[in-house]
Design a protein that fits this description.
The chain has a single domain, classed as Tetracycline Repressor, domain 2 (Orthogonal Bundle), CATH 1.10.357. Helix content is about 75%, strand content about 0%. The chain has nine helices and no strands. The longest helix has 27 residues. It is elongated, with a radius of gyration of 19 Å.
């Protein structure tokens, strides 16, 4: 809280007036972030029926938010398991909802295209691809969220759609 006080120019007493603890502040940041991402996603998915496009919207929504809020994303990535005293359960519920939306999008794609892949592995791989963008993205060198989402969407969808074909050709690994 002292570091935050110095960085914000607000007195320590002033911070504690509004936020009784660092944990409460972290909770508010996380709740706002994940609620915003989920609500924006739901709005963007309305009326879109193409399964691949829905996954691309998911990716774009995620990357746009992460790139526009890189500092908050650093905090969230490194402080994800800190929340206790009921704060963590509320944020975890929002994260589970977001995860379930992604699972549903991939399950819909699987059914529509007759694909076979491990949904959990695919979802976690997608999050792994997207969540660490804050560690390497440099706006002076790298493309914007829309372009990156297109590239990541191509890589991800190419993998889940064509993965079955590639596994059939590759001998089993031990």
């Amino acid at each position: 809280m002292r570091d935050l006080s110095r960085a914000s120019g607000m007195s320590l007493a002033g911070l504690y007036y509004y936020f009784e603890s660092k944990e409460r502040l972290l909770f508010l940041i996380q709740r706002h972030t994940f609620s915003t991402i989920v609500q924006r996603l739901k709005g963007r998915l309305e009326g879109v029926i193409d399964h691949e496009e829905r996954i691309r919207i998911f990716i774009l929504n995620h990357l746009e938010y992460f790139l526009a809020n890189q500092q908050a994303m650093k905090v969230l990535s490194h402080e994800a398991d800190v929340l206790k005293n009921g704060f963590g359960s509320e944020v975890a519920a929002i994260k589970r909802e977001y995860y379930r939306i992604c699972v549903g999008l991939l399950e819909d794609l699987k059914r529509a295209q007759g694909l076979e892949f491990a949904t959990r592995i695919a979802v976690l791989s997608l999050f792994g691809m997207m969540n660490w963008i804050y560690t390497w993205h440099n706006p002076r060198v790298d493309a914007d969220a829309e372009h990156l989402a297109g590239e990541m969407g191509d890589i991800f969808l190419g993998g889940v759609i064509n993965g079955n074909k590639n596994r059939e050709k590759t001998p089993a690994r031990k």
